[in-house]
């Protein structure tokens, strides 16, 4: 009898595991690929290429809040206005400079009942260092072996210029969009966006905009070799951003002479607390959020053992969490991570330290809140002598819809696959933060994606040396935005229902 029950249970497990593995292995239906022979393909002409190279020459560097290169931002703005004469003088367009250097455009569609959307980007860049180690100077826009070099080539002047080129093309070809849209270029994204994006968002509200269909901003790229065993490019659309909490831990004591020490010093107590935080990571959130969907979307391309594991997180969560925690980038996907970034204590070699302080930086998984993370720390530390103070914090952003009936997500997915027909599109979480924090009141549907094709080793070029984009990729960027705008013109999606989502 018992044997039969055990066998029956094993049988049911095997059926569920097999069913999930098979169902999640289905491929997405094909889309019509964007080809250079299409009527609406925008070729990278010499003048389009030259405009992008010129854009990379403006040293629109942000150093700190309020500390950015105003002259260069002014020049870059003037260059934009002069380079796209149709956009800046079309009856369909209202535009303005916001807080001197940022830009806001409204492109008026002819179906006013459709909710507008917003394309965001930013004009500033981070500083360039180690100039001698660059293969071409960082503000040259020079082309070496098919790559255009320059600070901002992938973060993110390719999107600024790609959006402008595609809209100029649209207007020059007398295409009136059906759905209205806005374009917002902030000028200090690299230093919190408090002068740029924040002001644009306020201006947008002033203009009476309260709700947007979706927002597009820079984010995750199209990556090759992201996950071992998955050989196709993976295009992940950031549907949320991790939150952040910067905590200041402190322990106060009574100063005294080192010849008569107390049993425990402030340094000893704080070191113990910090050690407990570092050696006890926050729990794996695998199975609760977007990271699960991300992995499940890659199932069709995984090898058989990977497929069985990922299709059955309900069963294999502990094993899979352990595997993912082995590498920092996949560990960051599944949990709130903890970095001890500063430790200060002591005043003199023979004085008992009166104060010890440490800074802890958490990046918070979207399934948790700042409050929960601090509560968890408090219990881990388990020592009331350690004072915990929030230096700054932001909860993870709400998660945008990524289902079959979520308009913005599906428009992104279709567009990505038109440009990269072999790409696997999956929802993901952005580990950093962008200007989108200033636009959270307009919609939950914020999609963070950069149409940049990245190969292993390219990630270090962000804010690093030899930032570059291939000539071919820049042409894809322009056509990506053009197709995104065209695809956004449909009034709604035809409702689809796939069994797939019922699991
Ligand atoms: C802008 O357009 C108007 C008519 O629509 C035209 O008279 C004017 O010359 C144009 N200005 C520029 C700078 O092209
Ligand atoms: C914008 O320009 C005005 C006039 O030159 C100046 O007073 C103001 O500080 C500028 N704003 C910013 C953000 O630089
Ligand atoms: C969103 O709206 C709330 C309530 O009006 C306001 O307190 C908050 O500052 C707004 N957030 C942003 C990012 O503008």
TrEMBL record:
Function, please? Answer: Secreted enzyme that regulates the endogenous N-fatty acyl amino acid (NAAs) tissue and circulating levels by functioning as a bidirectional NAA synthase/hydrolase. It condenses free fatty acids and free amino acids to generate NAAs and bidirectionally catalyzes the reverse hydrolysis reaction. Some of these NAAs stimulate oxidative metabolism via mitochondrial uncoupling, increasing energy expenditure in a UPC1-independent manner. Thereby, this secreted protein may indirectly regulate whole body energy expenditure.
What keywords were assigned to this record?
Hydrolase, Metal-binding, Protease, Zinc
Would you say which domain of life the source belongs to? Eukaryota
SUPFAM superfamilies on file: Bacterial exopeptidase dimerisation domain (SSF55031), Zn-dependent exopeptidases (SSF53187)
Q: Name one Pfam family in it.
A: Peptidase_M20
Alphabetical GO CC annotations of the entry are: extracellular region
The chemistry this enzyme catalyses reads:
N-(9Z-octadecenoyl)-L-leucine + H2O = L-leucine + (9Z)-octadecenoate; L-phenylalanine + (9Z)-octadecenoate = N-(9Z-octadecenoyl)-L-phenylalanine + H2O; N-(5Z,8Z,11Z,14Z)-eicosatetraenoyl-glycine + H2O = (5Z,8Z,11Z,14Z)-eicosatetraenoate + glycine; N-(9Z-octadecenoyl)-L-asparagine + H2O = L-asparagine + (9Z)-octadecenoate
Family affiliation: Belongs to the peptidase M20A family.
Q: Which residues form a coiled coil?
A: none
Every Peptidase M20 dimerisation domain range:
240-380
CDD domains per the record? M20_yscS (cd05674)
> What's the protein name?
Peptidase M20 dimerisation domain-containing protein
The pathway noted for it is:
Amino-acid metabolism; Lipid metabolism; fatty acid metabolism
Q: Name one GO molecular function term.
A: aminoacylase activity
Asked if the keyword Protease belongs to this entry, the reply reads yes
Q: A GO biological process this protein is involved in? A: amide catabolic process
């Amino acid at each position: 009898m018992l044997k039969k029950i055990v066998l029956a249970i094993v049988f049911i497990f095997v059926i569920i595991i097999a069913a999930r593995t098979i169902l999640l292995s289905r491929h997405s239906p094909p889309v019509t690929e964007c080809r250079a022979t299409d009527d609406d393909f925008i070729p990278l002409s010499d003048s389009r290429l030259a405009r992008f190279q010129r854009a990379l020459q403006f040293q629109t560097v942000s150093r700190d809040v309020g500390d950015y290169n105003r002259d260069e931002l002014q020049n870059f703005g003037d260059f934009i206005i002069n380079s796209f004469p149709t956009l800046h003088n079309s009856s369909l367009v209202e535009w303005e400079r916001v807080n001197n250097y940022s830009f806001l455009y409204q492109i008026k569609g002819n179906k006013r009942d459709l909710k507008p959307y917003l394309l965001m980007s930013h004009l500033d860049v981070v500083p360039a260092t180690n100039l001698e180690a660059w293969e071409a100077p960082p503000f040259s826009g020079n082309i070496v072996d098919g790559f255009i070099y320059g600070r901002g080539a992938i973060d993110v002047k390719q999107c600024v210029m790609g959006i402008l080129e595609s809209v100029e093309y649209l207007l020059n070809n007398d295409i009136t969009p059906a759905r209205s849209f806005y374009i917002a270029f902030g000028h200090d994204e690299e230093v919190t966006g408090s002068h740029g994006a924040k002001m644009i968002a306020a201006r947008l509200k002033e203009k009476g905009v309260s709700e947007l269909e979706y927002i597009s901003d820079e984010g995750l790229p199209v990556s090759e070799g992201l996950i071992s065993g998955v050989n196709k490019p993976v295009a992940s659309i950031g549907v949320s951003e991790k939150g952040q909490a910067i905590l200041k831990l402190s322990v106060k004591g009574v100063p005294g002479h080192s010849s008569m020490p107390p049993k425990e010093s402030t340094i000893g107590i704080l070191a113990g607390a910090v050690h407990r935080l570092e050696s006890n990571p926050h729990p794996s959130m695998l199975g609760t959020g977007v990271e699960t969907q991300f992995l499940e979307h890659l199932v069709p391309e995984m090898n058989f053992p990977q497929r069985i594991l990922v299709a059955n997180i309900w069963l294999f969560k502990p094993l899979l969490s352990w595997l993912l925690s082995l590498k920092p980038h996949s560990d960051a996907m599944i949990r709130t991570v903890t970095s001890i970034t500063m430790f200060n204590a002591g005043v003199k070699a023979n004085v008992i330290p009166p104060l010890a302080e440490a800074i802890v930086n958490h990046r918070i998984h979207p399934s948790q809140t700042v409050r929960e993370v601090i509560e968890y720390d408090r219990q881990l530390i388990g020592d009331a002598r350690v004072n915990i103070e929030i230096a700054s914090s932001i909860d993870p952003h709400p998660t945008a819809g990524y289902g079959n009936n979520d308009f913005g997500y599906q428009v992104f997915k279709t567009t990505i696959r038109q440009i990269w027909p072999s790409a696997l599109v999956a929802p993901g979480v952005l580990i950093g933060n962008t200007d989108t924090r200033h636009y959270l009141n307009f919609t939950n549907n914020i999609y963070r994606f950069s149409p940049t094709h990245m190969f292993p080793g390219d990630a270090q070029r962000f804010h690093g040396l030899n930032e570059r984009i291939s000539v071919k990729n820049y042409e894809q960027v322009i056509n990506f935005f053009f197709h995104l705008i065209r695809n956004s013109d449909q009034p709604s999606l035809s409702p689809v229902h796939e069994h797939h989502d019922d699991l």
